[in-house]
Amino acid sequence: MRDKKEIGRTGEKVSSIGLGTWNIINYDAAMDAFLYAYERGIDNIDTAEMYGDGRAEEFVGEFLRRVGRDNIFVTTKIMPQNLVSRDRAIASAEKSLRRLGIDTVDLILLHWSEPHLSLESQIKNLERLAEKGYTRYIGVSNLGVEELGIAQEATSRHEIVVDQVRYSVYDRRVERRLIPYTIERGITIQAYSPIERGAIIGDPVLRRIGEKYGKTEVEVALNYLITNPNVVAIPKTEKKERIDLFVGAMGWRLAREDIEEIRRRVESRYSIEDLEGES
């Protein structure tokens, strides 16, 4: 499996499908699935300090101990209220690193933007974490074009390399402005909820297109996303059998006519005019 995407303009590449850790119910089953995913070539994991009140980061830490720290690209996220000051940002990052059992995370994101907090200040405090060596790269989550532009202007030495947003065949709001904007500026999109918690299974359009390729609805839905040159999808699962579908989404691409058919016939659950990047 050699389907890789670059993180920003860092020169560093990860598998086009990664794994998320939000709302894990059975951590033992999830560990089996994640270990199997690693064996199949998936090498990037997303988590956050708020997931399971830190339990998800501890889970990722145990996973890293089993497969080797250098073999996985790890993303975590800090809540905006923990980036309001330099000291609070440092304390939050240090707690995450302790739970992960590592000295440096690959990527730390601002989890979302709070309107009553200064986005510029949060980004500057996020950048300080990179300056202290707590993270190699910085990025954001749930930001639309305007806020992403503000975040970029707020940096001084470290580029915003990722914007993690909701994106699926049922939620294509980011296609209108955000994806063209990020392609032009060399920012990677990490797509969360890319299979809508399994809701895309049984979709008749995805099923029929999948039959042409010998693929399932899940594989078609994920491939649709990663056909974009700068999109990495991060579905979550606790099932080993679903890992095979994630891997099966890589290494090939939908034909242009099938992409256009999905855009025409798979109904988006949100207006394309809605605020992009909304969580």
Helix/strand layout:
Layout: E1 4-6, E2 13-15, H1 27-39, E3 44-46, H2 55-67, E4 73-78, H3 86-100, E5 105-110, H4 119-131, E6 135-141, H5 145-154, E7 160-166, H6 178-185, E8 188-192, H7 204-213, H8 217-226, E9 231-233, H9 240-248, H10 256-265
Parallel strand pairs: 3-4, 4-5, 5-6, 6-7, 7-8, 8-9
Antiparallel strand pairs: 1-2
Helix pairs in contact: 1-2, 1-9, 2-3, 3-4, 4-5, 7-8
Task: Give a written overview of the molecule.
This protein is of the alpha/beta class. It has a single domain, classed as TIM Barrel (Alpha-Beta Barrel). It has ten helices and nine strands. The protein has helices at 27-39, 55-67, 86-100, 119-131, 145-154, 178-185, 204-213, 217-226, 240-248, 256-265, and strands at residues 4-6, 13-15, 44-46, 73-78, 105-110, 135-141, 160-166, 188-192, 231-233. It has a seven-stranded parallel sheet. The protein has a two-stranded antiparallel ribbon with strand order 1-2. It is globular and about 55 Å long. The two termini are 31 Å apart.
Strand residues, percent: 15-25%
Q: What is the 3D form?
A: globular
Return residue spans where pLDDT drops below 50 for at least 5 consecutive residues.
Answer: 275-279
Strand order of the largest sheet: 3-4-5-6-7-8-9
Helical percentage: 25-40%
Tell me the distance between the termini.
Answer: 31 Å
Structure class: alpha/beta
CATH class: Alpha Beta
Order of H and E elements: EEHEHEHEHEHEHEHHEHH
The number of helices is: 10
Count of distinct strands: 9
Q: State the major sheet.
A: 7 strands, parallel
Task: Supply the number of structural domains.
Answer: 1
CATH superfamily: NADP-dependent oxidoreductase domain
Q: What's the overall average pLDDT, rounded? A: 95
What is the CATH-assigned architecture? Alpha-Beta Barrel
- Gyration radius from CA atoms, angstroms: 18 Å
Kindly report the CATH topology. TIM Barrel
